[in-house]
Every structure is written in C-alpha cells, then in structure tokens.
UniProtKB/TrEMBL annotation:
Record-annotated Laminin G domain positions: 183-364, 371-548, 795-960, 1021-1212
Entry GO CC: membrane
Disulfide bonds: C933-C960
Membrane topology reported for the UniProt record: Single-pass type I membrane protein
Species lineage: Eukaryota, Metazoa, Chordata, Craniata, Vertebrata
Domain F5/8 type C: start-end pairs: 31-177
Name of the protein this chain belongs to: Contactin-associated protein-like 5
Matches recorded under PANTHER family: CONTACTIN-ASSOCIATED PROTEIN-LIKE 5 (PTHR15036:SF46), PIKACHURIN-LIKE PROTEIN (PTHR15036)
Residues of the signal peptide: 1-25
Species of provenance: Triplophysa rosa (Cave loach)
Domain EGF-like: residue ranges: 550-587, 961-999
Entry's transmembrane regions: 1244-1269
Keywords from the named record: Disulfide bond, EGF-like domain, Membrane, Repeat, Signal, Transmembrane, Transmembrane helix
Similarity comment: family membership: Belongs to the neurexin family.
Residue span of region Disordered: 40-73, 1217-1237
Length: 1314
C-alpha cells in the first residue's frame, strides 16, 4: 500500500513538471480582465434588432447611449446576441445587464461558444446545468464565474426568459485573458513522426497531454511501439477515446501486461477536448476533459520501451509512404506534449526530430458540416422543397442523423398527389420504410441495427419508377417494389409533420424525431440550413440551427453497483438486472441486511443472501441462517472445515493453511461489526507438539486474524498472549504451562478453544510448527464463523427535551441517499433529521400528527413530499419511514401507505451540497425538536449508533421504554408487537400463524376438487406529488423476489400445491410429480420454456407432514424441505412476476390461471397436477406478506376470495410431532431383531389368531365411523363452505384481515389488493 501511495505521489509530481509549459501557455493567474469593453462595433452581431437604437454593438455593460442595450424583434424566432472576441481567448466569467432605463431584461439565458462562428456548443456548468440565471431589473449586474474556463473566439447569448412586464433587453461583458497555443491540422491522410535521439527509449514515467477536436469518430492520435512488444496507443473509436498500453515482452508473456481503458463520449463533435495520460511504473491515470480513470497494468515489467519514433495522427506502414495501418485522425490538435517536449512547436520550426507524412498544416480547418437539432418529441419538423421534382421524376434524399431515441419519424413525403405516402421511421433502433397506399393497405421495409447509439448514421432513399431503394451507412441498398409508377410530391418533411391544417396528408407517429440531422441533400442539391434559419427556404418548428445538442447522459454513469446505463434524448435509465439492487439508479439492495432481519420476516433456518451494508458499495453474500427460538446464528463457511493432520513441520518450515471464506474481507468485517457477538471454534489435538514452550518464548504455532496480524491465544473473548482455553478455565494438565500441548506429552492432549474476540475474527490463516520430532503430530480443525444478533436493528434513543438532539458528521449524500428509521411518539410534530448547506438542505419530519414530510433543495428550489395517514402517527406505536433522493427521483414511504415519489427535472442541479453537522431529533436552531423514540436509523446502508451518542448527550437517553422496544422476540412469524398501557399484544394479521404470540399454525383440509383462489387487483402503489417539474411516470419494477413457505400432508400424486400467475402470462407452480417428488415450475419469459426444478427428496406423498420453504432473489432460488440442507437452484432469468393476477391453492379450474399451458405439451405436467388438485392438509401457507389460508378463514364471502369444494379448518400442523414420533416408533419396531425359539412357536400362533380377531373388530368399527362422519359432513356442507374449528371471528379480526389483504408488499414496493 505504501509503495502504491509513493507511486501516485511521484506520478503527480512528475505530471506537474511535464505539464508546466502547457499550464503557463494556457493560463494566467489573473485571468479576469474585461474583454468586451474595447471591442469595435463590428464584433457584435444578432439575429435581429428591434430598431437602430437597440443594435447589438450597444450591448456593452453599463453603456447608456442609444437605446441602452440590445433588443431583438418581437417576431424573431431564433433570438441571439453574438460577440466576436477577435481571437481565441480564455474566458472565465460573464456578466449581464438589462436595457438601460427600460422594463426590458433577460431572466435566464444559454451561452454558446465556437472557434469559427459556426458549429456552436452549449456551455454547461457543474451538474451539466445549461442555463444561467439572469437579471431582475434593468440596471443590476449579475456576474457568473464559469465552473471551468473555455477557450474560444465567439460567444452567443441566447435569451430564454425575460421581464414579465417588458421585453428582452441585454448588455454583456466577458472576462478572461489571452490564450496562445500551437496547433496542427491533420486531414485524415497525414501524420507527424517524433524521432528519438537514440534507437529506443525506455521510461518508467510518462506524461502525454494534448487537446484535440475531431471531424470523425475514429482515428489514431498517438502511437509508439517497441520490438519486444511494448506499445502505447491513443485512438478514437466510435467517438470514445481508447488508451492501449502493454509493458511486457509479448513473446514471453503474451498480453500479461496489456491494459485498455475507454473514456469519454461523443468526442467527434468538432469541439476541443483535453487529454492527459500519466504513467508511473504500472500506475496509470487517464483523464479526458474532467473525467479520470485510474488503472494498474498487470505483468512483470514497469518500463515502456518505444523504438525509434512516436507517431502522431496515424500509424504509417514502414517502407510504404502514405499507407497507414489503421484509420488516421482527421481534425486538429494543440499543445501536444510528450514528457515535456512540445512536439507541434518542433514541427512548426521544422526541427530534424520531426518528420511529416502527408499534408500537416498549422491552422485548424473550418468545420465541414452544419447541424440542426430537433428539440421537441411532439412538434419539431423541417419542411423542405424537393427541388427539380416534377410529375414522373425521381426523388432522392440523403442525410445523416444521430440520436439516442429508439423511436421517431425521420422522413415523410407524398406519392401520387397525397393519396399515397412514404414514411421513414426509426423503430426500435432500426429503419422502417412504410408505403401507405390507403388506411388499410401498406408495405414495410426494415433495415439496420442499433441505430440509436448516438453515432452519426448516413441514410439514402431514392424513389423512382416502380421501386424505392433505401440504404444506411455502408450497407447495400434494399428495395421495395411499387404497384404503380411513383409520382413524388414536391415537399419533403423531415423529423415530423406540421399541424394538421397545414399538411393534411401527414400524421405524426407516436413521437417525432428528437436528435441531430446534418448534410441534407435533395435531388443532388445540398440544403443550406442557414437559409432555412433565416426563413428564406422551407419551414420549420422547434429546431436549433448550427448546433448538435446531443448529450451523453450516461457520462458520468449515475447507475450504481455496476448497473448498465442506457438513455433517450432527455433521460437515462439503469438496468439493475443481476446486480442485486433495485430502484431508479440501482441504489437499494434487494436483500435483507442480516439473518436477524430474515427472522423478523418469518423465515426459518436456511441459506440466504444478506447485504450487511445495504445500499453501500459491498455486494451481497450467501450465509446460512440458523434461526432458533432464542438466537439467530449467521454461519459463514470457508474452504477447509475438515480435520487436518500435521506431521514434519518446523518453525523454519511450518505447515500453513489459508482459509478462504464465502464472503470477502470487507463483507466479513461489516458482518462481524454488525453482529452482537461472534465466535469461531479451533479444535487442536496434539501429541509431543508444543504451542509455546520454547526457551525464549517464541511461539511455535499461531494463527492470523482477518487483518493478517499474528495471534497467539487459542481461546476466549479477550486477546490474551500465549494462552489456551485450559488456562482461562484453570484446568490445564500441567499448571506450569498455559496450554495442555505445552506439557509435551506423548499422549494425545486437547487444546480446543472458542475464539470470540470480534475484532480479530475470522481466522484467516493457521501455522503449525512443532511436529518434526519423532512421534510428534497435531490435528486441527477451524470451524465456520458463527455470529448472532444484529446490534443495529434495535439501536435506539429517546428524546425528552425539544431542544435536545444528536449530531453526527455531515451527510454524504451528493448524488443519492436513502434514509430509513422507526419512530414512536405522542407529540404532534417534530424534526426527525436535518442537515444544512450554504443553500441546499435535507429534512425529514413529522409535520403534523398524521403527516410525514420529506423536503430538500439541491439548487433547483425546495422539493417537498408528504405522506398523510388516515390514522394518527403519534399513537405511541412504532412507525416505519423511508425517504430516498437520487438524481432521477425522490420518494417517501410511511408504513404500508402508498409510496409518494417525484421525478427530478431532466435539466438542473444534481449534487446535494451540505456542510453542517447532521442533526437527529432536532435542528441547529434547537426548535421543533422531536419528542419520542427513534431506532434503527439507517443512511445509505450504514446504521448510526444512536445509543453511543445518547450516552453523552443531555436530554437524550439510550434505548426506548416499552415491551416492544427490545430485540426479544415477543411476537413470532412476522407478528407485530403493539404497545398497550398494561403490556402488549401481537398483531398476527401479516402472519400465517395465529394465537397470542403468532405461533399457532393455521391449517385446512382439502378434499377432491377443493381450492382457494385469490384475485389480485392492479397495483397502484405510487402516488405522485403534482408539480410542473414532473413528467411522465416510469413505473419501477418490483424486486425479482418471492418467499414461499407452507406445510402439507397428502398421499395423492400428482398434486397441485400452489400456483401464482400474472397478467403477463407468467406463472410459478409448486406441484408433486407422479413419483411424489417436489417440483417447482417458473415461467418468467413467455417466449421461452419454463424453468423446472425437481427435489432429490424421496416420495413426499407419504402421509407425513412436510415443511417446504422457497426463497428466490433474482436468478437464485433456495429450497429447503423439512430439515434437509437448503439447496440452491439457478433460474435462466432474473425477471420478476409482473403484476400478479391470482394465487391458487389446490385444484386449478380457471384456464387463465395457468397461461401457456399445453403449448406443444411443454407444461403438461403442471396442467395434469392442476386438474387433479390437492387432497390432504395444508398448513401455515405464506406467500411473501400474504397468508392465504388464514385470510380465507377470516374473509368468508369476500368477492376477491374464491373457495370451491369443502374446506375444513384442521389441526394437521399440530400433528407434526405426533407424526414424527409415530414414524420413529414404527421404524424402531420394525428394526428389532427376532430370535427364533422352538418353545415359543405355539404362543406365536395363538397371538396371531388373537391379532386377526382384533383386526376384524377394528375394521367394523372403522366402517361405522366413516358412515357417521359422512352423514355429519353432508349436513355441515349445507351450512357453510368453511367450517371453523373454534368460533366465528370478531368483526375487528375480520377487518384486520382485510387490511392485511390490502397492505402493500414492502419488498416489491407495490400495493396489491385482493
């Protein structure tokens, strides 16, 4: 680590030294002088002027003559004021005023810049904010320092909003300093060669810096290579910069030292971009504009050996002048430095080290293309005349486009006098040409792939005679045949259609085109877009000329946890598939943080994925959760849990065993830190093998803790020195030693101990060093890591004074933050959390007895989300609150009430800038403090230790009073503890169990044809705050997660136990196959065959009670039957069950309940099991947060619960112990050995006769009992479809059960109604 830090420091120092000439040339430490005040009138231009007295040259700051500033005509559609600074300068700030003595000023504006007065680019400040706040009166000056300086000659001010009581009025000033640079222009067929003084150069440090602007998306900028295989290449590839470096000998170590780094996007925009490459040994810093990637090369070598020369702009082929190995760079470079050498300056001065290939000039060429940006997805269009087209002639159109949108209209033109139309659409990233002959007749032609990738694509369409041809990029043209000769119209519509009245033949598709278009040629005539802009050619709407406004919204990538980012023109989207996270930016973990949390959800023992740091950077890990009544143990295994015998080891050559755990070191550290207690057993047996008994006290054996530190104690929770468990217990066999093994006896001795000092666990390595003597050996085994408890789950504090609070370091929440907590109070209001910045803030509070408010401001104005409960929240019960804010949206959840969320604006500030302390339970002003209890306060996956802070804070105490404020499990199986004045009660409405503590199983007996079906309504879990900033809602996917548990008893096969289906023709089914094995069927993709998993268990239709637990998280599914080991299965997809339609227990009668069944016999087994149904007993059925059997009993007559056949509440769940005992008893009887004895034969015969008589009598009794039971059963069926065992539920029980059915499933973030 120290070596790496020294490498980085040396690299930074060397880079600073090498970049010094560039810095001095390009920057002035006092670069803030006025640049506009001395300019001549000819330096000012504008789109229009309302009068001569308001001409653009009057737009200097503080100027009062004439009309007092510039104002455009009111009919001007493209309003701008342009300043020519006469040469390229460095601009650091701008300032604006309104028009002197008038009601005219600009309240917001955009700033564009250009080197040539063509091909403009919009300046964006931090957070990609593209607008500047303007003035509030005519004479005040508003000054803006640019977040990063720009080097340019031309500036354009584009007014966006202006004085509500007047018009646009503008005076400006620009601040900066002179800027000098050395430039070289490459035409795509040229390059420069920088030749070294010696044959080859070998360096351990390299710094390359340059700026470039490119007219093509591909091309080599810098390349150097050596004979042994070293190389460095910097090249453009599809508008991104790629850096390839190899330091190793390619002949002996192929590709071991190679590294490739990609950075940047849309770098072929004909604007300047800066590059800095810093290398020190294997450490590389690669910076493009203001984004930096840090990587480290592999391999052995640290030096880069380059032979003869470094090529700039291309890679010439030796011996073949003018021939290049790869595409050359086409564009301009400036200030190119290689290890402090100004290469372009050497080339300009024609120094002998520089050799020029092709035509390299030292002034940048003009941009070749003029672009237009189509801004609106609903109303942008460009109408152009088809010059030279008359009846019967051909029409040809070519153009280039670039966009992120997968849909949009590109071109439309009429055929045969508007009775037919030709329509070119972008559909799902492909080109679709449609010939509409009538409203019902059309033909299509589809070409191209992935055309919405942000790259420029060339399209050519030709109409003539009886065919239409279409081509894209370099692909061969495809043709469409026409039935009649084409008669192209005289107008071509690009991007969209004008309003209906203006063009009755054209109809916009779902969306118009949104993106950039350039190089339009109609019938071999290039279209001059400047004439279109001036209104001299064609017509348009919602276009921006001479600029391509495309942005890469995935750079930087705001998707978290390695999620993939995709985008449209205005938004970005995150694909969370396979990450283990969910949400708009994949911020939230789909896994519980601990085994204790799994227990609270009602889970039994088994393998589970846990994410100890929640939304933090660490991934989830699989552990075994041993859930007992008194404790919940988390078990983490490693690679060697068997006993290991050691012989022949010595202190010089010890036996070494390294333990690799199923979790990473960081995951283990977080898991152990979150646990109340951890332990690890080390079994150690020895014979003439000592641990510590040496003359100088040097240990002979030891172990390493998780940090790699040597430890010499072998038991206990205190890190003692050189002692074993027997020393702690004071029972060592030789009291002269602290370990039994140190007695050095020839008999086997035991020094097994349990390590329980958390900060040292787990054991990472063990070394044994005294088994090389005659008769000396040792046997050891290091057990799995066992931890129990979750010390954060119930970490709580009570606030007794309104002026009291807890304070923590500033919240780190620039781009995303999630806050979750539980609170209980009797106060009507109070601030739960607050953190302030200079202007930004974030606050969570109980603002009224039944209202929770989440408010924040990131610079776009305050945003407030509120959730109002129909019941008071100050009822002295625990209430759950979760608030989240990220760059895409903000949300607020309270208990199971509908989620409130608000989309963030697509343009605006994104970083939350805070600088004060984080206040919990109060504010910095000591007003509106919270009175009550707060527990389990979690921020971005880290739980704040409230109890530790409360120990030292007046007015706050650790813990919370009440029965329901501790980790003791008073209510089991998802039961909720409710405080009462004289104790507590358990609310079991979300549990599959009943009884006072939610431990009583609820069971139902099914007869042939019986079933229970629940119909889910459409979810509407999301409620929006109305705001003008909000746009269309993009519904979030629920988690790909199901948790199913039930017990059953049957002798029938096949059998349908449970099936769940969706409105999207998906389903999940749990069945018993013909052989009695358990099968789980998942069809998550209706286009593919289902996933089928069959348990390895024996026949489960054996009349005994079996417990089944199924837990799916993404693609991973864990299945546990009875007490067998939980087995993991992997699905073919991690898709979710989208919009659940119904859940059925028993026979399936509705054909819609099992979609796609019977297709080619694929799901025939499920169909057969569904038709057979289930005969037997089902007990304690839980599906996520739904308890179907219990709800069916308590909700008879509900229109959403369908019951067929006869269901009888049973006690089959309580028979589990009896069934097991009877099974064991039978097994024991059959297992007894019979010893033959001739003297007992007669007794055996007599006993057999007696047994036969008893059997006949029992059969007769059974027949009579069956008859009486059937008679009683028929009468019961006439009374009610469900017979309850004890009594009818009270109205409040029935109401509570209905509330349960109408509650949202928290883990899916959607509300379902049954």
């Amino acid at each position: 680590m120290m070596t790496m830090m020294m490498d980085v420091l040396s690299l930074q120092a060397f880079a600073l030294l090498c970049a010094l000439p560039t810095t001095l040339a390009a920057n002035n430490y006092h670069c803030n002088g006025p640049l506009v005040s001395s300019l001549p009138p000819t330096s000012f231009q504008s789109s229009t002027s309302s009068s001569d007295s308001q001409s653009p040259y009057l737009a200097k700051l503080n100027r009062k003559d004439g009309g007092g500033g510039w104002a455009p005509e009111r009919t001007d559609r493209q309003r701008w004021l342009q300043v020519d600074l006469r040469e390229r300068v460095e601009v650091t700030a701008v300032a604006t005023q309104g028009r002197f003595g008038s009601p005219d000023w600009v309240t917001s504006y955009m700033l564009l810049y250009s080197d040539t007065g063509r091909a403009w680019k919009q300046f964006r400040q931090e957070d990609n904010v593209g607008t500047f706040p303007g003035n509030t009166n005519s004479d005040g000056i508003v000054h803006h320092k640019l977040s990063n300086s720009i080097r340019t000659r031309f500036l354009r001010f584009l007014p966006l909003d202006w004085s509500p009581g007047g018009w646009i009025g503008l005076r400006v000033e620009v601040y900066g300093c002179a800027y000098k640079s050395d430039v070289a222009d490459f035409n795509g067929r040229s390059s420069l060669l920088y030749r070294f003084n010696q044959k080859s150069t070998s360096t351990v440090k390299d710094v390359i810096s340059l700026r470039f602007k490119s007219q093509r998306a591909d091309g080599v900028l810098v390349h150097g290579e050596g004979q042994r295989g070293d190389y460095i290449t910097l090249e453009l590839h599809k508008g991104r910069l790629a850096l390839h470096i190899n330091l190793d000998d390619a002949k002996t170590r192929a590709s071991s030292g190679h590294v490739s780094v990609f950075l940047g996007s849309l770098l072929d925009d004909q604007h300047w971009h800066s590059v800095l490459i810093e290398r020190f040994n294997k450490q590389i810093n690669f910076t493009v504009d203001r984004l930096t990637r840090r990587v480290r090369t592999g391999g052995v070598d640290d030096s880069l050996e380059v032979d003869y020369e470094l090529s700039i702009g291309g890679i010439p082929l030796p011996g073949k002048p003018g021939t290049f190995l790869r595409k050359n760079f086409h564009g301009c470079m400036e200030n190119l430095y290689y290890n402090g050498v100004n290469i372009i300056d050497l080339a300009k001065r024609r120094k002998p080290q520089i050799y020029s290939v092709g035509n390299v000039t030292f002034t940048c060429s003009e941009p070749q293309h003029v672009s237009a940006t189509f801004l609106s997805s609903s109303s942008s269009f460009l109408s152009l005349p088809a010059a030279g087209v008359s009846d019967g002639e051909e029409l040809s159109v070519t153009f280039q486009f670039r966009t992120w949108n997968r849909e949009g209209m590109l071109l439309s033109t009429s055929l045969r006098r508007d009775t037919e139309r030709l329509l070119l659409l972008l559909v799902n990233g492909q080109l679709r040409l449609t010939h509409h002959r009538s409203a019902l007749q059309s033909s299509d032609l589809v070409i191209g792939q992935a055309l919405s990738d942000g790259q420029w694509h060339a399209v050519s369409i030709s109409v003539g005679g009886l065919q239409v041809s279409l081509s894209v990029d370099d692909e061969a043209a495809s043709t469409m045949q026409l039935k009649e000769s084409a008669q192209p119209g005289k107008n071509v519509l690009i991007g969209g259609c004008p309003p209906t009245l203006a063009n009755p033949g054209c109809r916009n598709p779902t969306v118009t085109y949104q993106g950039c278009i350039r190089s339009i040629v109609i019938n071999n005539q290039p279209i001059n877009l400047y004439l279109v802009q001036q209104g001299l050619l064609g017509n348009y709407s919602k276009l921006q000329f001479d600029i391509c406004g495309i942005r890469d919204r995935c750079l930087p990538n705001y998707c978290e946890h390695d999620a993939e980012c995709s985008q449209s023109w205005n938004k970005f989207f995150c694909d969370c598939s396979g990450t283990g996270y969910t949400g708009a930016t994949c911020h939230n973990s789909i896994f519980e943080p601990s085994c204790e949390a799994h227990r609270l959800t009602g889970s039994a023992s088994g393998f589970f994925s846990i994410d100890p740091d929640g939304s933090g950077p660490l991934k989830s890990t699989v552990v075994y959760c041993n859930i007992t009544d008194d404790k919940v143990w988390t078990v983490v295994k490693h690679n060697s849990t068997e006993m290991v015998r050691v012989q022949g080891s010595s202190p010089q050559k010890p036996h070494v065993m390294t333990f690799n755990y199923s979790a990473t070191l960081d995951q283990l550290r977080t898991l152990v830190g979150r646990s109340e207690q951890c332990q690890q057993e080390v079994m150690y047996l020895c014979r003439k093998s000592r641990l510590f008994n040496t003359w100088d006290g040097t240990p002979l054996s030891w172990w390493l803790d998780r940090a790699g530190e040597r430890r010499t104690y072998w038991g206990g929770f205190l890190p003692g020195v050189q002692q074993c468990a027997c020393s702690l217990d004071e029972n060592c066999i030789d009291m002269n030693h602290f370990c039994n093994c140190d007695a050095d006896r020839s008999s086997w001795e035991n020094d097994t101990g349990v390590l329980s000092y958390k900060e040292h666990l787990p054991v990472s390595e063990i070394l044994v060093g005294d088994t090389n003597r005659t008769g000396s050996e040792a046997i050891y085994r290091v057990g799995s890591l066992h931890c129990f408890g979750d010390r954060f789950l119930w970490n709580s504090a009570s606030f007794y004074q309104e002026s009291s609070y807890l304070h923590f370091p500033t919240l780190q929440a620039e781009l995303s933050v999630d806050i979750s907590l539980y609170f209980k109070t009797t106060a009507p209001s109070g601030v739960l959390l607050e953190n302030l910045g200079a202007k930004d803030f974030i606050r969570l509070e109980l603002s009224a007895p039944s209202v929770v408010t989440f408010a924040f401001d990131v610079g776009n104005g305050p945003v407030v989300l509120t959730v109002k409960s129909h019941l008071p929240l100050n009822d002295k019960q625990w209430h759950y609150v979760r608030a989240e804010r990220n760059v895409k949206e903000a949300s607020l959840q309270v208990d199971q009430l509908p989620l409130r969320f608000l989309e963030a604006p697509t343009e605006g500030h994104t970083h939350l800038q805070l600088n004060s302390q984080l206040f919990i339970g109060g504010t910095a002003s000591r007003q509106r403090g919270f009175l009550g209890c707060v527990r389990s306060l979690d921020i971005n996956g880290m739980t704040l230790d409230l109890e530790e802070k409360a120990k030292m804070t007046p007015g706050v105490s650790l813990g919370c009073p009440g029965h329901c404020s501790s980790q003791n499990s008073l209510c089991h199986n998802r039961g909720k503890c409710i405080e009462k004045s004289s104790g507590y009660v358990c609310d079991c409405t979300r549990s599959a169990y009943g009884g006072p503590n939610c431990k009583k199983e609820v069971s139902v007996s099914f007869e042939s044809g019986s079933s229970v079906t629940y119909t889910f309504q459409e979810p509407f879990s999301v409620t929006r705050n109305h705001s003008r900033q909000s746009s269309a809602i993009y519904a979030q996917s629920s988690n790909s997660r199901e948790s199913v548990a039930f017990s059953f008893l049957t002798t029938q096969t096949p059998a349908m136990l449970l099936t769940v289906n969706t409105y999207h023709q998906q389903y999940m089914a749990v069945i018993l196959a013909h052989n009695g094995s358990l099968q789980i069927w998942y069809r998550l993709n209706r286009e593919k065959e289902p996933d089928v998993f069959t348990s390895a268990s024996a026949n489960l239709a054996d009349g005994l009670l079996h417990r089944v637990q199924i837990h799916r998280e993404g693609r991973d599914m864990y299945v546990q039957i009875d007490r067998d080991t939980s087995l993991k299965y992997v699905l073919s997809t991690d898709k979710e069950l989208i919009t659940i339609r119904s859940l059925t227990l028993g026979k399936v009668t509705d054909s819609a309940s099992l979609p796609l069944i019977g297709r080619a016999g694929v799901d025939e087994e499920v169909l057969q099991a569904g038709s057979k149904g289930f005969v037997g007993c089902l007990s304690s059925v839980q599906f996520n947060h739904l308890a179907p059997l219990k709800a069916a009993i308590l909700n008879r007559g509900s229109s959403l619960v369908s019951i067929l056949g006869n269901l009888v509440e049973s006690n089959c769940g309580e028979l589990a112990d009896k069934s097991s005992s009877r099974s064991l008893s039978d097994h024991a009887d059959t297992g007894k050995k019979l010893h033959p004895n001739a003297g007992q034969n007669d007794s055996a015969v007599i006993g057999g006769l007696i047994a036969a008589v008893v059997l006949i009598v029992l059969c007769a009794v059974a027949v009579m009992t069956r008859f009486l039971y059937r008679h009683r059963h028929d009468r019961t069926r006439q009374m009610a479809p469900v017979k309850e065992k004890d009594h009818q539920p009270r109205p409040e029980h029935r109401y509570r059960a209905e509330l349960d059915l109408h509650s949202a499933m928290r883990d899916s973030r959607k509300e379902y109604f049954i």
